[in-house]
Amino acid sequence: MAANAKGELGEATETDDARELTDGFHLLIDALKLNALDTIYGVPGIPITDFGRLAQASGMRVISFRHEQNAGNAAAIAGYLTGKPGLCLTVSAPGFLNGLTALANATTNCFPMILLSGSSEREIVDLQQGDYEEMDQLAIAKPLCKAAFRVLRAEDIGIGVARAIRAAVSGRPGGVYLDLPAKLFGQVMEAEAGAASLVKVIDPAPRQLPAPDAVERALEVLRSAERPLIILGKGAAYVQADDRVRELVERSGIPYLPMSMAKGLLPDDHPQSAGAARSLVLKESDVVVMVGARLNWLLSHGKGKSWGESGSKRFIQIDIEPTEMDSNVEIAAPLVGDIASCVEALLGGMGESWSPPPEEWTRRVSEKRETNLAKMAQRLGADTSPMDYHSALAALRTVVKERPDILLVNEGANTLDFARSIIDLYKPRKRLDVGTWGVMGIGMGAAVAAAIETGHPVLAIEGDSAFGFSGMEIETICRYDLPVCVVVFNNNGIYRGSETNPSGGGDVATTVFVKGSRYDLMMEAFGGRGAQATSRDELLEEVNRALDSGKPTLINAIIDENAGTESGRIGNLNPQSVVSRKS
Ligand code: ADP
Ligand code: TPW
Ligand code: MG
């Protein structure tokens, strides 16, 4: 069986009886390619350098990053955009740990991803004898992802990859860890037996049909509704059943609310969108249909003041994960299954003669929406100097409207919250943001993956703090010459740049950065284009020039350092001391 092939890697070696050999490196590549996984995001080093090299030689796209967390975030977004597990490749212990945050974040967001990590020698690690980059990675990964596997024998690589793929994309999608000890890569076996050991995963995310009685129950609840609402979450965007979801909304006539990353699933200017009447519909609806959205903190757990009278709502929830039901409030009609099948079943049950919701309700929602949109238009009309969030975002709103194919990446606090409400999206899966955790640092990883996976230009709207978490990857963007335009909303800090040290002297305040930082010069350092924008017109001109050129660009947009509020729009979650004492 497997001999160690150190020193002979990459070459077809002949045995005495002239039978062709393969090894762990090649088997892993072949297993991934067999399953149409052809792009890897990672950072090279022991023991996976040669793997990346051979993968590239085999025609796979191998995108090298400057930090594993960004590679991991790229893999997660690739998973979200394609429905196939995004691949991240890391070295042992520290590289693995750097990637692990992204794996946990992918799992939290229900994005399919596989973290492939090299690891040190089991015999030494398990006796804690101090191997190079020693760590029991499998044990550490397990609680932070959906599934974790280790492959010890070359002939098990095919099965290991198959298990990882199924675990990542079936049921509720999530992150999977695949532990690959250094020795595995060098194990040699006969090529024919190796090829036979590979597994092409058939139907990796099987349809899961809802039970007919559950469908009937849901329809009954829906028929009895006087003020129904549909909430579309990023699960509904992920499943790529865009036409069916749209049909459900349009045939039912029910107002809908898109969660952040579901914006654009139906165009944000759709007449049934209740995005601009959010408070009203949450408070006053009587039946809420959740489609691939969870009743977590982003929806105030489905209860409390923002949801109106307690006990007055009934929920219909479509989700593939049965235990999501009743997680926060009682679900009157759980519809467990895949979104496409559940929506299909509802449409079938509704028939052609479905009566739309009472006109009184839809009219109230539209009126509220028009009033709020008019208010917003007025605020967007004010061209302030220096720019505030509205002034700058008015320009970017126009850009996205004129270029509905571009992907929008967005993170920050005020920069996130204002951009989410001001910028309309017109197509599905165009908005990539901080997701369920509200995590900073997804920006450049998401931008790289968006460009690589879709081929469309990317506009990344980044708070200056948010940008700092992954900013070094602008070198990666330049290296691969990606059509990414980064706009840094530079307000000299976190939330506001105007705070001072409360002790009256000493260090600068904890939320403040170097004033007047020139993020644009960072991009120039790597051969991209840098520009500054101090006014809305300048910003508009620079962004359009960047997107027309398709060249890596960073625009340092100078934002009034007093314009933001602490924690953006989630200040209510931010505990503040009420005790006054002498320090
Ligand atoms: P948002 O943050 O937009 O509200 P969440 O991430 O909270 O969205 O919710 C997404 C939900 O979508 C998860 O509960 C997940 O189980 C569900 N989901 C993902 N894929 C499918 C699918 N194919 N069918 C049904 N539900 C799915
Ligand atoms: C991994 C906490 C939430 S928002 C934010 C931080 C540090 C930055 C806000 O400043 P920014 O935006 O980006 O300049 P703006 O427009 O308001 O000035 N670490 C992680 N995730 C989170 N969410 C934080 C810290 C945080
Ligand atoms: Mg800032």
Keywords:
583 residues; alpha/beta; binds adenosine-5'-diphosphate; disordered N terminus; 22 helices; 6-stranded parallel β-sheet; binds ligand TPW; binds magnesium ion
The amount of beta strand, in percent, is: 15-25%
The ligands bound in this entry are:
adenosine-5'-diphosphate, ligand TPW, magnesium ion
Mean model confidence by pLDDT? 95
Number of strands: 19
Poorly predicted regions are 1-12
Structural class: alpha/beta
Largest sheet: 6 strands, parallel
What general form does the structure show? globular
**What's the N-to-C terminus distance?**
70 Å
Q: What is the helix content? A: 25-40%
Number of helices: 22
The gyration radius over C-alpha positions equals 26 Å
Which strand order does the major sheet show?
Answer: 3-2-4-5-7-6
Q: How would you describe the overall organization of this protein?
A:
It is a single chain. This protein has 583 residues and is of the alpha/beta class. Helix 17 links the parallel strand 14 and strand 15 (431-433). Helix 3 crosses helix 18 (443-454) and helix 10 (212-223) packs across helix 14. Mean pLDDT is 95; it is low at 1-12.
